[in-house]
Amino acid sequence: MIFLDYERNIAGTYYIAGVSDGGDVSQIVLNEKLRGLAMHECFQITTPFTFTYELLNEAVKKKDVIAAYSSAEKNYINEILSSNRNEFRDVKYLNMRKAAVKWVNKYHHEKFNALPPLVVNAREYEQARHRKSLASISRLISNPAPPDYAIGHTTQRFNQVISALELRNQNYVELTPTQKTKATKALKHNRFDVSAMLKLYNRIKGDNENIIEKATSPLFEH
After folding, report:
1. String of b and e for 83-105 (b: at least 16 CB within 10 Å)?
2. What are phi and psi of 78, to 5 degrees?
């Protein structure tokens, strides 16, 4: 199983990807404008296409399933590798959100409904949007998101880091403490999402492996 989380904005700009095959989380920079951050953190820097192509090649070799929260990553991969679908026609995709919601409804419906909003002061429509998020459901397995998780603010943080790096010729050391903190929090957010998926997957699989199977489908629809 390969757990994957892209950080990407609605305009289609990629920032980083977090990935884990069950061990530590690796983070790969997918944006040349974050080169200074990549160099400071000793992260690999590549393109969305190269990263995704190599990841799926690894999945084919190891007969791994790509797991991500919701169908977003599936759509991104289909977009990135639109002309390479035949190479990866046998790769499967696990929609962890689909599995998590089914698991909640089957085993923790009352407990989940009793939980407070993920962000207490959020507007009503935001609370509804947050309700079945990974950070929200992770509370059921005693894995709360860190206080600085700030759901919905990660791309804004990356954009601010990009602006700062461009002003300083990609020299991360010259960023202000506030700008460095934004970078740290954005990376931390991504790392939490990947590790939380792994923990939630193990819990759901332990309770009912059939839920995992039913949430798994071909990565590329034929």
Report:
1. eeeeebeebebbbbbbbbbbbbe
2. -60, -35
Tokens of residue 117, six digits: 């909003």
DSSP annotation of 171 reads -
Q: What is the length of the chain?
A: 222
Output the six-digit token pair for 120: 């207490």
Averaged pLDDT for residues 168-177? 97
Q: How far apart are CA 75 and CA 216, in angstroms?
A: 15
Long-range contact set of residues 46-51: C-beta below 8 Å, sequence gap at least 24: 48/6, 48/14, 48/17, 48/76, 48/80, 49/80, 49/81, 51/17
CB 36 within 8 A of CB 158: no
- The distance of Cα 214 from the centroid of its chain, to the nearest Å, equals 21
Q: What is the pLDDT of residue 86?
A: 85
Q: Where is pLDDT greater, at 204 or 126?
A: 204
Confidence (pTM): 0.93
- Tell the residue number behind the tokens 């020299």, with chain if given: 171
Q: What is the number of other CB atoms lying within 10 angstroms of the CB of residue 1?
A: 19
> pLDDT tens across 34-68, in order?
999 999 999 999 999 999 999 999 999 999 999 99
Spatial strand order in the sheet of 14-20: 26-29, 14-20, 2-8, 66-68, 92-95, 216-218
Could you give the C-alpha distances from 3 to 11, 61, 64, 67, 79, in angstroms and in order?
Answer: 24, 16, 10, 5, 19
